[in-house]
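#struct-help
A.M.: can someone run this one for me? Single chain, 431 residues.
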Amino acid sequence: MENTNYLSLPYITGSQDQKHITHNEALRILDAVVQLSVIDRNLTTPPADPSEGVRYIVASGANGAWAGWEKSIAAFLDGGWTRLVPNVGWFAWVEDESAICVFNGTDWVLFSDFVTGGGVSLWGVNTAADETNRLAIKSDAVLISHDDVTPGTGNIQVKLNKSATANTGSFLFQTDWSGRAEMGLAGEDNFSFKVSPDGASWQNGLRIAAASGVVSFPSGVDNLKPKNWIINGGFTVNQRGGTRTPGVGVYGFDRWKGHAGGLEQVIAGLPAGDYTLTFESASNGAGTIGGTTAPSPIYVTGLAGGATSVVVPADATRVSVCSGDCRSMVDPFEDRNDLEELAMCQRYFEFMTVALIQSPNSAAGLFGSYITFGSVKRISPTVSFVNVLESNNVGAVVASPISPVGFRLYTSALVVGDAYYTAVVQIDAEI
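D.P.: on it. Structure tokens below:
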């Protein structure tokens, strides 16, 4: 063998005279191909007055001294052109393009195109990639910016695509290669934020339901409870003076009416989604939501929403319906102050004392007043007179028109002189 396999460098033989000529020829070839940089890769004809040592990638359709040298390296050495035939994998810096090209066996292609085309299966930046981490980077910072070169649209989006719902697409944060936090779609299509003290046990801190967008806090929130869709879940408001065991369909404590299974509350306008019903019961009785009956807690998915019936045992207290899966929370019950709870109850029901007074010197005829509710009602309610406290020289008393905000109350003075009317009215906007 007279030449090396890859660069075809000439060997120095044992009996060879003038060995320096062979050695210098090998150095000449090495000087031309090592750290290869060419001026251009689009010429078909040699330049008229080349400088010593210049190199070109010969384009297709070459002629003159380069005829038949397509895709080869043409190097001007010792006053003449020398052909260097590339092998697969050679790199060359193309000066007039300020770009790196790689020879793929048939053509020189931009290295960026080669990578985009899937030619690189592993890529490591300042570290080694492997079959699991095919892209590996060691850096103090990583910048991904919108395309202002092409230019692009000005937008930028990073995509993590998993194959199925049961797979995971997430960002994992580690300390010394041990997981401490993860966010994304972890084994489901609901977005979650999880944390771990040791990389082995994980707690789900926040979960966003894919179907509804409802946010839940499965592990609880310091100083914050999830919204309770139940009103008067602690049974602190009792405007009617009712009992904890009213007859079926009869209201006792505010928002609770008797039911064959205990007590029922109908939640108005519940958004569609997943919910958890929790309550405390000394008898360990069962509750019902969304057609599911079981002891507390009860987690149901895919509730249609709207007016939703919730049934709890008659001895239940601290009743809560929270969005999402709250089963792992120590106590999801939302404590509200008494005034807030009363105001919420009064959107559905309240008693009011109303009065109409006609001055002594007024003539007989109609007189009245506009009555504003203590709380705006969820709908226009019914107004019932339950107890007339006093009445003098007045005709029939009428409440009309009625709106969620209030109603007009009027009557007729039957004679000239004092005329007045005072009564307790019931305002009912229950479901």
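A.M.: thanks! Helices lie at 19-33, 111-116, 338-345.
D.P.: also worth noting: The CA atoms of residues 32 and 357 lie 113 Å apart.
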